[in-house]
Design a protein that fits this description.
By secondary structure, the protein is α/β, with parallel strands linked by helices. The protein has helices at residues 10-21, 33-40, 51-60, 70-74, 97-108, 126-137, 158-163, 175-185, 197-228, 232-240, 261-274, 280-304, 330-340, 353-359, 369-373, 386-389, 393-399, 414-419, and strands spanning 2-6, 25-29, 64-67, 79-82, 114-118, 144-148, 168-171, 192-195, 311-315, 344-348, 363-365, 378-381, 404-407, 423-425. The strands form three sheets. The protein has a six-stranded parallel beta sheet with strand order 3-2-1-4-5-6, sandwiched between helices. Strands 11-10-9-12-13-14 form a six-stranded parallel beta sheet. Helix 1 (10-21) crosses helix 3 (51-60), helix 5 runs parallel beside helix 6 (126-137) and helix 9 packs across helix 11. The longest helix is centred in the middle third of the chain and has 32 residues, at 197-228. It is elongated and about 75 Å long. The N and C termini lie far apart (59 Å). Bound molecules: uridine-5'-diphosphate-xylopyranose. The site of uridine-5'-diphosphate-xylopyranose (UDX) has 19 residues, from helix 9.
Length: 432
């Protein structure tokens, strides 16, 4: 099938490349000349494991191309996917102006029946607005359908998540749209749930907010574990055996971040308030997450006593491993609080340092894990990159001025760290 993918961010580019991989002909459109320029040269504007290979392969096979023109993109298309940004405004609501602009441009260039798919994370009722906008500018009254198809892929594992999804959710109104969508997603061989458009939109917000709730829940449990000397990992394991609960997303840590959870939580709260159906529970989820970062900084303070004038080495800046994404990364807030208390920060991240440079100030970025430890008063782990688990702890011990590690992602066993002579504090477990 012919697909026009509008927006080449994490969702748009991965989805476009994966649809091409499935044998479709895809044109990825973006109004950012830098991104399109890079892609045409075969370079990726974002880091996502496996994406470059997929893009190169499908460009070579003639199934994937890039353009700055929506008119060109939809000329022969069966589908136009809207995967543009919906950034948060200061009140928590989503800024939908990119979605509106794209809808208008699609309408002005409609030539034949088109299924317009809303892929960006948007508040409930956005599909209705997209439909109204297209109807308004669709002067030749060409038939079209608007479909809500929320994306559940995770950064760092996005290609695999797309090609092997747990489920595909499609909110739609007509049989014609249903048949066309069925043909597109059929090859994925996963459950496809057809719903009305509003339910599909709510599924996305409700799922992300639920996962965020799980994390804040286990982080709250972790604080109780710390008070009584229990171990949150054992608690999570015990809870996780119950299939009604499940073990995933019960990793206690120094807080969740990224461009989805904080933003979607905020947006869901905003919508619920606007609709007069306050979702107060989500206020607590947000509060617990904010407090978790403060709690973590307090742990560092307890280990160092006075932070002022001390050098803190930070391992991991991206909001999670295997991504270069710094948006709403807990590292930003943690570093800000440490700097406020007078710490000198030196940091390392395997991939996200070019992006980190744009958002962090007065941070010395180092070339390696070991250079980050050299001369530091303590080492703080913020992101659980797999390579951090394999660090040579004996070497780290020699490089630090004091053998102190504060671990926000529970990478090591407290008993092992104690044996090695470290002062080691982690989340929801006894400090040694
Ligand atoms: C999330 C959803 O998982 C995905 O379905 C949706 O499409 C987009 O939002 P993503 O933001 O890529 O994906 O990352 P995810 O792996 O969900 O992690 C989000 C944050 O939660 C990270 O900061 C991570 O460190 C944190 N987290 C996750 C925890 O603190 N504990 C956990 O157990 C799981």
């Amino acid at each position: 099938m012919n697909i026009c993918m509008i927006g080449t961010g994490y969702v748009g580019l991965v989805t476009g490349a994966c649809f091409a991989e499935l044998g479709n002909k895809v044109i990825c459109v973006d109004n950012d000349p830098r991104k399109i320029g890079l892609l045409k040269k075969g370079e990726m504007p974002i880091y996502e494991p496996g994406l470059d290979v997929l893009v190169h392969k499908n460009v070579k096979a003639g199934r994937l191309s890039f353009s700055m023109s929506i008119a060109d993109g939809i000329k022969n298309a069966d589908f136009a996917f809207i995967a543009v940004g919906t950034p948060p405004r200061s009140d928590g609501s989503a800024d939908l102006s990119f979605v509106e602009n794209v809808s208008r441009e699609i309408a002005l260039n409609l030539k034949k029946y088109l299924v317009i798919v809303e892929k960006s994370t948007v508040p409930v009722e956005t599909c209705e607005w997209v439909k109204k906008t297209i109807t308004k500018f669709n002067r030749k009254k060409i038939p079209f359908d608007v479909v809500s198809n929320p994306e559940f892929l995770r950064e760092g594992t996005a290609v695999n998540d797309f090609l092997k999804p747990d489920r595909v959710i499609v909110g739609l109104e007509t049989d014609r749209a249903r048949k066309t969508v069925q043909k597109l997603y059929g090859p994925l061989k996963c459950p496809i749930l057809f719903t009305d458009t509003k339910s599909a939109e709510i599924i996305k917000h409700a799922s992300n907010s639920f996962l965020a709730t799980k994390i804040s829940y286990i982080n709250s449990v972790a604080r109780i574990c710390e008070k009584v000397g229990a171990n949150v990992e054992q608690v999570a394991e015990g809870m996780g055996f119950d299939p009604r609960i499940g073990r995933s997303f019960l990793n206690a840590g120094c807080g969740f971040g990224g461009f989805c959870f904080p933003k979607d939580l905020e947006a869901f709260l905003w919508i619920s308030k606007k609709l007069g159906a306050d979702f107060e529970m989500l206020e607590s989820v947000k509060k617990v997450n904010e407090e978790q970062m403060i709690h973590f900084v307090r742990k560092i303070e307890e280990s160092l006593w006075i932070i002022n004038g001390k050098t803190v080495g930070i391992l991991g800046l991206a909001f999670k491993p295997n991504t270069d994404d710094m948006r709403f990364a807990p590292s930003i807030e943690i570093i800000r609080m440490l700097q406020e208390r007078g710490a000198k920060i030196q940091a390392y991240d395997p991939i996200s340092m070019p992006n980190a440079k744009k958002v962090l100030q007065n941070v010395t970025l180092k070339d390696s894990i070991y250079e980050t430890a050299r001369g530091a008063d303590c080492l703080v782990i913020v992101t659980e990159w797999p390579e951090f688990r394999k660090i040579n702890l004996a070497k780290i011990k020699k490089l630090l001025t004091h053998p102190t590690i504060i671990d926000g992602r529970n990478l090591f066993k407290p008993e092992d760290m104690k044996k090695m002579g470290f002062h080691y504090a982690s989340i929801g477990r006894k400090s040694v």
